[in-house]
Amino acid sequence: MKKPLIVQKFGGTSVGSIERIHTVAKHIINAKNDGNQVVVVVSAMSGETNRLMDLAHQVDEVPSARELDVLLSAGEQMSMALLAMTLNKLGHVASSLTGRQAGIVTNNQYNDATIRHINTAKIDELLSQEQIVIVAGFQGVSESGDITTLGRGGSDTTAVTLAGALNADECQIFTDVDGVYTCDPRVVKTAKKLEAIDFPTMEEMARKGAKVLHLPCVQYARQNGVPLRVLSTFDSGPGSLVKGEECHNPVCGVAIQRNLVRVSFQYGQISSVLQQCHMLGIQIWSTIKEEQQSCIIINQEQYAKLNILFDNKISGVEPISVLTLVGTRANELYELSCELLTPYSIEVGHFDIQDRSLMLFLSMESIDKAANLLHDSYITPSEMLEIHQKRVLLG
């Protein structure tokens, strides 16, 4: 009888020191002792990628994209080797594999590559020998043979893609939080950990700013039916399971995205701006068309790209944040949300209604207060009942 197969992913904080690597090893050994085959994906130790990036910029302000990938891939290779050494020292046979050795083939896009396919032959061979397989996350090899990196969240993407290619029973993402919460618990103290959450809701939460899982990771898992489980490296517990398509809650969660800017343009420029944003890969959170001017809302870090092209056509730049309600009825709650925020002098500067979400664009100073007010109004079951009753009275 074939043993269950689990893919585990550990981020930079989890492997940030030799002591923490020993903690990671215990999780892996426990999974192995429970009768599972185990494949592990690791990120670079916390701070290591930034250190390597800083070295590159000391050499060249705009380093070669190809050589940057060669350099940055070294961070994950260090983590995988140290973890494999630790497991072997503890009496469990483990082998580490780079992206190339693991058969991870990507396109030719340096610094932000996409996985094309995975040849699992080497991993299958090691698993048949009862070994634990440690794979470097965030990297692969292009079809022309060059080392490539996968961009932000690349280790999560590596893990879930491997889980799909290996037909794993579950992909476990270990982080510094113990699951998926209804809102960032550092902002909303009453946020609740979810035992389970459906893929569409998790995807929308990730798209709108929730940091616990990266969007491509959730999208791939959903497309390939790979159950995801979010767990803490440092605490015991079942974590949160991401699985299935059905959501029954009017509001499942509240996502927060800071560091956005509202960029205003002279009237008539918006079509050209939208076209350039698409060409540059700039994500547009929302578009606002007013009588005298038009605006787009984008990430602050992407503004520099736009400024180079449209410097003389930009009439204003304003920092802004977005709070997003996600759930089956979230798109019906704009007026009620404004009513809840108005007594606290919180003004909604702009809003955007989508299929299962409501985005409220707010000042940076008011976003945390608004998140607490709306979370406590919509997520708490007893208060949610009052909200429904009020909606009925309002017609």
Describe the structure.
This protein is of the alpha/beta class and 395 residues long. Helices cover 37% and strands 27% of the residues. It has twelve helices and 20 strands. The strands form four sheets. The protein has an eight-stranded mixed β-sheet with strand order 3-6-2-1-9-13-14-12, sandwiched between helices. Strand 4 (104-106) and strand 5 form a beta hairpin. Helix 1 (18-33) packs across helix 3 and helix 5 packs parallel to helix 7 (215-224).
Tags for this model:
395 residues; alpha/beta; 8-stranded mixed sheet; 20 strands; 27% strand
Number of helices: 12
Count every beta strand, where a strand is a DSSP E run of 2 or more residues: 20
Mean pLDDT: 90
Shape verdict = globular
Task: Output the strand order for the largest sheet.
Answer: 3-6-2-1-9-13-14-12
Secondary-structure-derived class: alpha/beta
Q: Report how far the terminal alpha carbons are from each other.
A: 59 Å
